[in-house]
Design goal:
By secondary structure, the protein is of the alpha+beta class. The chain folds into two domains: 131 residues, 2-Layer Sandwich (60s Ribosomal Protein L30, Chain: A); 157 residues, Alpha-Beta Complex (Phosphoribosyl-aminoimidazole Synthetase, Chain A, domain 2). Helix content is 32%, strand content 25%. It has a seven-stranded mixed sheet with strand order 8-10-7-11-9-12-13, sandwiched between helices. Helix 2 runs parallel beside helix 3. The radius of gyration is 20 Å and the shape is globular. The two termini are 35 Å apart. It binds magnesium ion (MG). The site of magnesium ion (MG) has 4 residues, from helix 2. The site of magnesium ion has 4 residues, from helix 2.
Length: 315
């Protein structure tokens, strides 16, 4: 099975020895190296009936790519651990690996090795390396006065998840868009690299656990506070049509894999958009007071409690 799964994996020239030995052997680099790891577990993070095996393989890599994007890095090599449960055939894993290989090829990642283990639940764990040319984008460098920006729109993936769970009803194009945002997230690698070239280097984090929780991580690491204007949260057309003006999921829903970053006011919104070649939205500002406040349309500022994805929560 290992030989079969490894048959069509992308491996670049820097992989001196790929799958098949005790370790992969990689050519050295003079650049600083990034390494990250993430798991997707059946029943915790996904259900098989939600999508195809190829989507699952692609997503397992994409969520790791998002962490490299959040550092402003270039992804390079990964290794994959597959925990296999009874009841899944070789075709399932062929498709899963095809999805993984496709995403790896697009991102320029070599799948240098892996491991297969027997388990009671299906789980895919990927360790991904990357390297830094500029930056890196860190969580601990936000300064009072910085403006807070996000890429893309917020809450779509969380709404898509609720549609898959049949907690929210949606049809047609809106349903397709929102579900796709959950099943097939797009890691913001290009924008991360462009952000890393800005001076001073922005603080950044990817939004995997929900805007409020991830912003909280960044504020805590930087020793600062923040104000977010609820009116400024970027909501997609599909989100509004299915969920109205309720910004609940935009605040607390995870899985968007957009980037949140803090840039100095020395650079204007228009300059920033030009430099990044993408529409980014200013949603708030960094403050000296060590608390996170949500400012409503009427100007009322209040803390937000209990928001975000808690890995250890029992549902
Ligand atoms: Mg992250």
């Amino acid at each position: 099975m290992i030989a079969r799964l490894c048959a069509n994996l992308p491996n670049g020239r820097r992989v001196l020895l790929g799958p098949g030995d005790d370790c992969a052997l990689l050519a050295a680099s003079t650049k600083a190296q990034l390494i990250t790891i993430d798991s997707m577990v059946e029943g915790v993070h996904f259900k098989l009936e939600w999508g195809t095996p190829a989507m699952l393989g692609a997503r397992a890599l994409s969520i790791n790519l998002s962490d490299i994007a959040a550092m402003g890095g270039n992804p390079t090599f990964c290794v994959v651990n597959l925990a296999i449960r009874p009841g899944l055939g070789t075709r399932f894993f062929d498709e899963l690996y095809a999805g993984l290989a496709k995403t790896a090829t697009v991102a320029g990642v070599s799948v240098a090795g892996g491991n297969i283990t027997r388990a009671t639940e299906l789980a895919i764990t990927i360790a991904l390396m990357g390297e830094v040319e500029n930056g890196p984008l860190r969580r601990d460098s936000a300064r009072p006065g910085d403006k807070i920006y996000v890429t893309g729109t917020l809450g779509d993936a969380a709404l898509g998840l609720r549609i898959l769970q049949k907690k929210v009803a949606a049809r047609g194009r809106q349903r397709d868009h929102l579900v796709k945002r959950f099943l097939e997230p797009t890691p913001q690698l290009a924008i991360g690299r462009k952000l890393a070239r800005l001076k001073p280097t922005p603080a950044a984090i990817d939004i995997s656990d929900g805007l409020w929780q991830d912003l909280g991580h960044l504020l805590q690491r930087s020793g600062v506070g923040g104000r977010v204007f609820s009116e400024a949260l970027p909501l997609s057309e599909a989100y509004r049509q299915v969920y109205g003006d309720n910004c609940d999921l935009a605040l607390s829903g995870g899985d968007d894999y957009e980037l949140l970053f803090c840039a100095s006011t020395a650079i204007s919104d228009a300059q920033l958009r030009r430099r990044l070649g993408m529409d980014v939205r200013c949603i708030g500002e960094i403050t000296r007071e060590k608390e996170a406040l949500l400012v409503s349309a009427t100007g009322q500022a209040q803390p937000v409690h209990g928001h975000g994805w808690d890995q250890l929560r029992v549902t």
